[in-house]
Structure formats: C-alpha cells, structure tokens
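User: Predict the complex with zinc ion.
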Amino acid sequence: MLKHVAEGVLVHVSEFIQSNSIVVQGRDGVLLIDPGITGDEMAALANDLRELGRPVAAGFSTHPDWDHVLWHPDFGDAPRYGTARCAASLQDLLSHADWEARVAEGLPPEYADEIPMDLLGLVTGLPAGATHIPWDGPTVRIIEHHAHAPGHAALLIEDRRVLVAGDMLSDILMPFLDLAAADPLGDYLAALRLFENVADAVDAVIPGHGSVGGAGQLRARIEQDRAYVQDVRDGRVPDDPRIGPSAPLDWLPDVHKWQLLRLAERQQNQTP
Ligand SMILES: [Zn+2]
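Assistant: Here is the predicted structure with zinc ion placed in the model:
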C-alpha cells in the first residue's frame, strides 16, 4: 500500500524495520528510491505502480547497504542510479566470487529466504559530484556526504519540499556510524550540518527506516542525532529514547554498545 507524503511523493513501508521505499511521480513514470526488501513486497509495489499507470522510469539507492540496493524484475529495466562512490562500493562487493555469502551473513534470518539477491547492487554511478538525478520529473537534488556508509546521499525533492534522508534522521534508529571511515563522528556531524542548511526548504522528512516526519520534525531529528553523536564523542551516556529502556527496537541498545566498543578500539590503535 502506498501512503501519500506530499504531492506526487508516496511511500511504501516494509515490515522489515519500517524500511521506506519512496515513489516520486514524474511526467511519464516514477523515480523509485530504495526499492524495497522482500520479493513479495516489491512485486506488490510494482503491481500498484502498474495499476496507477506509472512505470518505473528510474531507480536510486541512497547508499550501498543491502537493504537499499535490491530490485525486482517487475520494476523493469529502468536505469538504477547511486552516487559514484556508492556504485564503486557495490562493484567492489560484487567483484568477490563469494559476494552472496558475504551479504547473506548480514541478513536478518527471519527474512533471508524472502530477499531476492539476483539483481542486488546493479547500480550505475552518476558522475562524481553530480548534483541532480537525471530523469524526467521534479528536480531532485543530491546531497552527498560521508556519514553512515560510503557514497551516502540524501535527496531533496525541491518543489515538493521533501527530504529523503537515507539511513539518518530516523525516529527509531539512532545514528549508525561508518566505522570504516577516517572520521566517523566528524563525518556524521558534517552531514547533519548539510541537512540543517536546507531545513527551511523542507516540510517532510522521510528516513530510510521509521516514520515520516512532518513540518518541524527535520530540525528536531537533526538535534536528536547530533546530541547522540556529540555524547558518544564526549564520553557521555546519551539520553536517547531510541536506545533507552523502552526503545522501540530492543536490539538497538546492543548496537549502541558495539559502536562504543569499536570506537574505543580505534582510539587505542591510533594512540602511538
Ligand atoms: Zn537501511
């Protein structure tokens, strides 16, 4: 089922950690951002689009994590885009003979059988520094940054005043740092500043996982993510409901502890 977010912007929510697939209506077809998780869900979404008379004109993956780079044959063979660094990261993954096993290790066991791997990651990189998605529809600005994953991009659908955030600005997930990056905490704070710069142009924020935030929510979510990152950086215990005793996802406090551990290990290794 597709939910209305703004004029010509719809969302399909997966039952897997409230993953949002975003549909943007263009002149003749739609832009499909982060297509979905299970085969059945994607087939149903393709069917909904067919009934609306809106074929998929282009796809976009906000970042190279498996849950954002799946595809279903029923979506057709529209071009699938990502940033240059997102596509390079996927090409690197797919160049390994055992890529499927590597991805399978990270899949949630209860969904693993329903996640189609055949068309995973077949993303064409846009030119480095590309500022817009090339397609026949509303202008979609690419806000690329270094937080969470290589080549991560948020998308600003300018005329619709919607920010598609990828895996940030979620009401259910605290910041997941890119622990392989040179400066995971600094990168995260820098990306939040980029979102702050466009906040006046946004009425709705769609996170990769979680609820769509309405007017005013963007700044609140930026503040919540920033407080978490700064607390982690400065050695404070974050007062963050997403990892508190009544966290909506009971496994998140463990991810938080794991992040702290990894950051501490990195610091130890960097000390001469
Ligand atoms: Zn995700």
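The mean pLDDT is 96.
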